[in-house]
Amino acid sequence: MYATETVEKLLLAFFNNLWGGRPEHAPDDDMPKAKANPKLSGSWMAHKVDLERAWKFCGFGWPEEHALYMRYGRELTVAETAREMNMTKRAIQQLTDAAVADLVEEMNTGTKRRAARDDADQTREIHGLYTKAFA
Fold this sequence. Notes:
- The protein is mainly alpha-helical and 135 residues long.
- The chain has a domain at 4-19 and 43-109.
- It has helices at residues 4-16, 44-58, 62-73, 78-85, 89-109, 111-134.
- α1 packs across α3.
- The longest helix is centred in the last third of the chain and has 24 residues, at 111-134.
- The protein is flat.
């Protein structure tokens, strides 16, 4: 389960391309290569995929995307983001809180992803009935 704090850290990595990196237990570059230990590899790739998939299905508009980028990509304060976007601090806080909450929900439950799949299934079913009726 993803917590809000975890998703906020993932957003910093998402906007600043900080995925992976060099693990603290990695050998020096001039050392012989050894087989990777899966217990020490971390789960950053799964987090990245989960965040990117959730982002896609949340369907954010310009205000949400821009506010999240300003807050987590450029690491601006709420006040600085509000000034840049010509909005109130309260509006920016509500906008980013709601967007992060949407990401957390989607990453944990996949609600929007399932709804999109169900809509696609229903469309295919209707199309199939239509082609049978008029074929």
